[in-house]
Amino acid sequence: MKLVNDNVKINMLITNILFGSILLYSYYYYYKHNKKTFPKLWGNIRDNNKYLLSFSVFLAAISYVYIFIYLLNITNNKRNNILLKELNIQQILLIIISILWTPLSIMYLKNDDNKVLLRLAIMLVLFIVSMCCLLYYKTLSKLSLNKNIYRKMVLVCAIILFAHTFIGDFLIWSYNFF
How far apart are CA 92 and CA 29, in angstroms? Predict the structure, then answer.
C-alpha cells in the first residue's frame, strides 16, 4: 500500500512541477511577446483594486502550495490513495485550463473579429477553473485525516483558492475586463 501511495504522491509532485512550470512559463512568454498589450489585461481595474487583486492572487498561490505540501505528507490508506488520484487529475485540469486564460485574453485585446466567441471562451475558462477549485475543496474534505489544525488550514486554503478564482477572477476581473 505504501508504495502505491508513494507513486501517487510522486505523480502529484511531477504534475505540479511539470504543468506548474508550463503555466508560469506561459505567463512569462506571453508577457515577453506582448509587453504593450499585457498591462491592458487589468481592464478597468484601478490601482487600489489592482493591489487587492494581486494580494488575492498571492494568497491563493500560497494556499495552493500549502495544500500541495500537506497532500504530500498525509497518511497512507486506501481511501486517501483514491482521493489523491482524483486530486491529481483535478490539479492537471486546473493548471491546463488556467494556461488558456492569457492567450485568449490577449487574442481578445488584439483582434476585432470573434469578440463574442473569445469573450465566451475566456468566461468559460474562468468558470471552469473556479468550479475545479470548488471540486478540489469537496475532494479535500473527504480525505481521512486527523481532525487537527493542519486539516482545518487545508480546507481554509481551499476556500481561499475557490474564492479567488470565482470572486476575484470570474466575477470581478471579467466585469472590469469586458
Answer: 20
